[in-house]
Each structure stands twice: as structure tokens, then as C-alpha cells.
Design brief:
Blueprint: H1 3-7, E1 11-16, H2 19-28, E2 33-37, H3 40-49, E3 54-58, H4 61-73
Parallel strand pairs: 1-2, 1-3
Helix pairs in contact: 3-4
Length: 77
């Protein structure tokens, strides 16, 4: 099965503090509905107020684990 068909229309949260990585992942996942965050605060608010089919989290340290915990509580892989 074509991965693009599987991902089409899925809601994805991408969190990274590097703008070039956010841009690259947004381009690669253009078949998805993307929300992006570059800070812990932005990501936390988006995770708490929206549902996502998947979250790509790249925030280092304790704050990254906090985001992962929020995603896990909402059953977001």
C-alpha cells in the first residue's frame, strides 16, 4: 500500500526548535494536515487543545518528556 495514501488527511503535530527541520518535515508530509511548534509552550498548548493522529517531538530534556507524557495520555503515537 502507498504510504502517502495511508497518511493522506492525517493530523500531525511537528515539534522542533530548528526551523529548517520544521520546513523539511512539512514538505515531506504535505499530504497531511500539519500543525507546527518550535517551543515547548506552543507544543503544549497544541497538544492539550487538539487531537493528532501522530506527533513528531524533538524538544530536548525534561520538557520533551513532558510533551511525550501529554501525548501518551491522549493516546497520540
Amino acid at each position: 500500500m502507498d504510504p502517502k495514501k495511508i497518511l493522506k488527511g492525517k493530523r500531525v503535530l511537528i515539534v522542533d526548535d530548528e526551523e529548517d527541520i520544521l520546513e523539511l518535515l512539512t514538505e515531506l508530509l504535505d499530504m497531511c494536515k500539519i500543525d507546527r511548534a518550535s517551543t515547548f509552550e506552543e507544543a503544549k498548548e497544541l497538544l492539550e487543545t487538539n487531537f493528532y493522529d501522530i506527533a513528531v517531538l524533538d524538544i530536548m530534556g525534561v520538557r520533551g518528556y513532558d510533551l511525550l507524557e501529554i501525548a501518551n495520555k491522549k493516546d497520540i503515537p
